[in-house]
């Protein structure tokens, strides 16, 4: 299977809930060797039914279980497009104006509430950095959240919430940017996607990223964060404490993308674009 461009049938078979051929070829010794056969799709979005052009707040609500935009959508920074640069059918494109640091002036954000609370979830999506892309110091990419979905320097206490977005860093380095109880500073901790070698986003290439989160036993450092990059296991952490209580677990997905950081050294040097497609969230693999 050509991972860089799936057919619709292949996407339905190989999205977050289902295995990709060779996905575990580089798995670590502690990675799971099997998954439940009762996996269910919780959410899926490929934008093929969305109207071309600016992605409106109404289209967002219709396609993301009633989600409302925080920023970027009403400002016209998200659009649906098709053609040779799209992943398959239609994709969305997010723009980041030159000099715009943070989510208010650049990129886009909204939260998808899943309508339930889960102890384990997988999510995946396709992402493409439009060439020529200057990564500068880095920026945020979407990921799963729980409870209050802590970000922005709000270190989790174990009684509020957590988040596990992705980031790109200088040169296109891929990391998981995790807000958890034991993070060393008030800001999230970088978990590098480097099993078998550090993974990098390459401008002009569609990459498929997949996350697996298993919530920890309250108060115990046994939470799991895994990541697959273009089908190969690249991250496997099993010592994460997201919470100290059982009043929240995994209940949302944060579409969050912008340059930053919060000072001018993170600013895009020119207008930039990132494309997204084929979002899927599921309860496991089969």
Written description of the protein model:
- The protein is mainly β and 286 residues long.
- The chain has one domain: Jelly Rolls, CATH 2.60.120.
- 5% of the residues lie in helices and 41% in strands.
- It is built from 2 helices and 16 strands.
- The chain has helices at residues 8-14, 57-63, and strands at 41-45, 53-54, 69-71, 78-82, 90-96, 108-118, 120-129, 138-147, 161-169, 174-179, 189-192, 207-214, 223-229, 232-240, 250-259, 272-282.
- The strands form 2 sheets. Strands 1, 2, 4, 5, 7, 12, 13, 14 and 16 form a 9-stranded antiparallel β-sheet that branches. Strands 3-6-15-8-9-10-11 form a 7-stranded antiparallel β-sheet, with no helix packed on it.
- A hairpin with a 7-residue loop joins β4 and β5.
- The longest helix has 7 residues, at 8-14.
- The radius of gyration is 17 Å and the shape is globular.
- The model is unreliable at 1-37 (pLDDT under 50).
**Number of DSSP helical runs:** 2
Kindly report the CATH topology: Jelly Rolls
Q: Low-confidence parts lasting 5 or more residues at pLDDT below 50?
A: 1-37
**Total strand segments:** 16
What is the quaternary state of this protein?
single chain
Q: How are helices and strands ordered from N to C?
A: HEEHEEEEEEEEEEEEEE
**Beta-sheet strand percentage?**
35-45%
Q: How many separate domains make up the residues?
A: 1
What CATH architecture label applies? Sandwich
Specify the structural class.
mainly beta
Could you name the CATH class? Answer: Mainly Beta
Q: Give the helix proportion (percent range).
A: under 10%
State the shape: globular
Q: What's the overall average pLDDT, rounded?
A: 89
First-to-last CA distance: 18 Å
The largest β sheet comes out as: 9 strands, antiparallel
Radius of gyration from the alpha-carbon trace, in angstroms: 17 Å
């Amino acid at each position: 299977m050509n991972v860089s461009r799936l057919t619709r049938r292949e996407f339905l078979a190989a999205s977050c809930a289902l295995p990709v051929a060779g996905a575990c070829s580089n798995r670590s010794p502690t990675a799971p060797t099997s998954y439940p056969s009762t996996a269910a799709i919780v959410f899926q979005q490929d934008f093929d039914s969305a109207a071309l052009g600016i992605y409106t707040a109404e289209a967002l609500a219709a396609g993301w279980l009633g989600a409302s935009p925080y920023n970027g959508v009403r400002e016209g920074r998200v659009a649906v497009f098709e053609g040779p640069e799209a992943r398959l059918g239609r994709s969305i494109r997010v723009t980041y104006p030159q000099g715009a640091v943070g989510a208010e002036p650049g990129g886009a954000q909204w939260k998808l509430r899943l309508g339930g609370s889960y102890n384990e979830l997988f999510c995946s999506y396709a992402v493409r950095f439009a060439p020529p892309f200057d990564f500068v110091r880095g920026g945020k990419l979407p990921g799963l959240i729980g409870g209050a979905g802590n970000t922005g320097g709000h270190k989790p206490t174990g009684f509020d919430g957590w988040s596990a977005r992705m980031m790109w860093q200088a040169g296109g380095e891929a990391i998981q940017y995790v807000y958890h109880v034991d993070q060393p500073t008030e800001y999230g901790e970088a978990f590098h996607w480097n099993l078998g070698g550090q993974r990098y986003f390459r401008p002009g290439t569609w990459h498929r990223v997949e996350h697996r989160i298993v919530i920890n036993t309250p108060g115990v450092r046994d939470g799991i964060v895994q990541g697959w990059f273009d089908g190969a296991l690249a991250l496997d952490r099993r010592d994460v404490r997201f919470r100290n209580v059982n009043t929240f677990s995994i209940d949302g997905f944060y579409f969050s993308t912008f340059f930053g950081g919060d000072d001018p050294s993170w600013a895009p040097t020119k207008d930039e674009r990132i494309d997204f497609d084929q979002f899927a969230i599921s309860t496991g693999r089969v």
